[in-house]
């Protein structure tokens, strides 16, 4: 399957079902959005992650998708994801092709994160913000689909027993909310006939 065909099938799959919303009685969650940036390079689909600087107050030194809290001037959660992607990576929001939305994810920092999947240019021309991005990690999709890189642990979080996912790609460990979003995305990819190939 071509990369474009994969992206088209993901787009129709994500648009054909409503994304699950987070319902945590007794919790007040602030709104945030992220973009799961995918791109094609040399005929190979990739996923982009950023590593947050060690100096940040929350989630320091962790891998994440570009995104953040919703500002009052953001008309929709998607505006938040695209604005943050432009601020963090210098990717023009008009150049992002949005394929759809994944399920909402709650974080221990009390955000409800709405993840959007978007195709970005594959030219690798980023202008990262030094305040928000310490490192850019580009991973071929096939590398993320390798079952040997996934580890699952159980832990009590927000009053319930939950699975924690850890994806170890080389020396890079992706975990937390980013890993939960990644797992949801990869589940969609594996449902696409020929998408995991």
Automatic annotation (TrEMBL):
<dbReference type="GO" id="GO:0010945">
    <property type="term" value="F:coenzyme A diphosphatase activity"/>
</dbReference>
<protein>
    <submittedName>
        <fullName>Hydrolase, NUDIX family</fullName>
    </submittedName>
</protein>
<dbReference type="GO" id="GO:0046872">
    <property type="term" value="F:metal ion binding"/>
</dbReference>
<feature type="domain" description="Nudix hydrolase">
    <location>
        <begin position="29"/>
        <end position="165"/>
    </location>
</feature>
<dbReference type="InterPro" id="IPR015797">
    <property type="entry name" value="NUDIX_hydrolase-like_dom_sf"/>
</dbReference>
<dbReference type="InterPro" id="IPR000086">
    <property type="entry name" value="NUDIX_hydrolase_dom"/>
</dbReference>
<dbReference type="InterPro" id="IPR045121">
    <property type="entry name" value="CoAse"/>
</dbReference>
<dbReference type="Pfam" id="PF00293">
    <property type="entry name" value="NUDIX"/>
</dbReference>
<keyword id="KW-0464">Manganese</keyword>
<keyword id="KW-0479">Metal-binding</keyword>
<keyword id="KW-0378">Hydrolase</keyword>
<keyword id="KW-0460">Magnesium</keyword>
């Amino acid at each position: 399957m071509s990369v474009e065909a994969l992206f088209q099938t993901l787009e129709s799959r994500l648009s054909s079902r409503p994304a699950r919303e987070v319902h945590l009685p007794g919790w007040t969650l602030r709104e945030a959005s992220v973009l799961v940036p995918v791109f094609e390079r040399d005929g190979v689909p990739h996923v982009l992650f950023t590593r947050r600087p060690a100096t940040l107050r929350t989630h320091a030194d962790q891998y994440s998708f570009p995104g953040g809290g919703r500002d009052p001037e953001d008309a929709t959660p998607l505006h938040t994801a695209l604005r943050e992607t432009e601020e963090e990576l210098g990717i023009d929001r008009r150049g992002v092709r949005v394929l759809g939305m994944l399920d909402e994810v709650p974080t221990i920092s009390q955000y409800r994160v709405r993840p959007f999947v978007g195709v970005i240019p594959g030219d690798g021309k980023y202008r990262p913000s030094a305040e928000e991005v310490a490192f850019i990690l580009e991973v071929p999709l096939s590398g993320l689909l390798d079952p040997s890189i996934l580890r699952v642990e159980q832990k009590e979080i927000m009053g319930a027993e939950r699975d924690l996912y850890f994806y170890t790609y080389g020396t890079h460990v992706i975990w937390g909310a980013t890993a939960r979003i990644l797992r949801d995305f990869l589940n969609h990819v594996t449902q696409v006939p020929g998408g995991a190939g």
